[in-house]
Amino acid sequence: MKRSPKVCIDRIVGAPPAPYVARQDLHSIIRGMDEALNLAVVAAKKWPAGRPITVRFLEGNAYVQEKVNKFAMDWTNYGNIKFQFVNDKQDADIQIAFQQGAGSWSTIGVDANTLEPGEPTMNYGWLDENTPDKEISRVVKHEFGHALGCIHEHQNPGGGIEWNKEAVYEALSGPPNNWDRETIDRNLFERYNKNITQYTQLDPRSIMTYPIPPEWTTNGMSFGQDVFDLSDMDKEFMKKMYP
Fold first, then answer.
1. Beta strands in the chain (DSSP E)
2. How far is the C-alpha of 136 from the C-alpha of 105, rounded, in Å?
3. Taking Cα atoms as reference points, which of 62, 43, 45, 41 lies closest to residue 53?
4. pLDDT of 158 above 80
5. Quick check: 39 and 234 in contact, CB under 8 A?
6. For the whole prediction, is pTM greater than 0.70?
7. CA-based diameter of the chain, in Å?
8. Hey, what domains does the chain have and what are their CATH numbers?
């Protein structure tokens, strides 16, 4: 049996149970169902431009920590973004865990500051010293994109994907993800409301999209396959979001 891609799950702080209901409050990160999104940033979740965003490791192998640091810093080349990795005894904005089997995820932007000191705001559930660099690059840049306020590309209000929903349910309900239908609906098919996001058209090469194989769509289109780095659109969009 073909294994499904390893994909990130959103951690939405303070959101009600799925299905989410779109609200007028720009400070809520609630998804609407009316439109689909590209590289998109939730407007209220951005960090103040130029403010150092502190990062610390709560645990983890030193070799993997070094790789996470290296690949995360690539975002700082595109926009007024500063990451400051701090001593592990200091509190930080982004707090990274390596809880195996807990998936890879991150809070969205400044939501990280709503959690208690010492509580993870980001997790890497399958990275270890044997993970290839290109996979570490893909996962780290994706999760740090969330930490900067980015949402999943396939949920972008600026574009759409023709989903073969039954194929997606079958794939993601099995290993390594083992999601129920509610989780799949929330992370694949529901779309963010355009009123709370800043976005452009769908970018199939964005680091923020899932690896979507052709059998997951009704028209045989694939997205995010063999994407391990920031796309040109990711870079230009982030420069505008953090001028």
1. 31-32, 40-42, 53-57, 83-85, 94-97, 105-106, 122-123, 191-192, 197-199
2. 13
3. 45
4. no
5. yes
6. yes
7. 51
8. 29-46+149-243 (no CATH), 48-136 (3.40.390.10)
pLDDT tens column, 2-31: 445 555 555 555 443 222 222 222 222 222
CA distances from 103 to 98, 143, 215 (A): 9, 11, 23
Please report which residue ranges of the chain form alpha helices under DSSP H: 62-72, 133-147, 165-172, 181-184, 232-241
**Residue 106, C-beta contacts closer than 8 angstroms, at least 6 positions apart:** 8, 11, 94, 112, 121, 122, 123, 143, 144, 146, 147
In Å, how far from its chain's centre is CA 54? 18
In angstroms, what is the C-alpha Rg of the chain? 17
- Using CA atoms, how far apart are residues 34 and 104, in angstroms rounded to an integer? 27
CA–CA–CA angle 105, 152, 70 (5° rounding): 55
pLDDT tens, 90-148? 789 999 999 987 778 899 899 899 988 889 999 998 899 999 999 999 999 999 999 99
Short-list 152, 146, 144, CA closest to 55 = 144
CA-CA distance, 34 to 36, in Å (whole number)? 7
Show the tokens assigned to 207: 């680091």
The C-alpha atoms of residue 37 and residue 124 are separated, in whole angstroms, by 25
Question: Looking at the DSSP assignment, which residues form a beta bridge with residue 31?
Answer: 192
Tokens of 19: 């299905």
Measured CA to CA, the distance from residue 204 to residue 196 in angstroms comes to: 22
AA letter at 89:
K
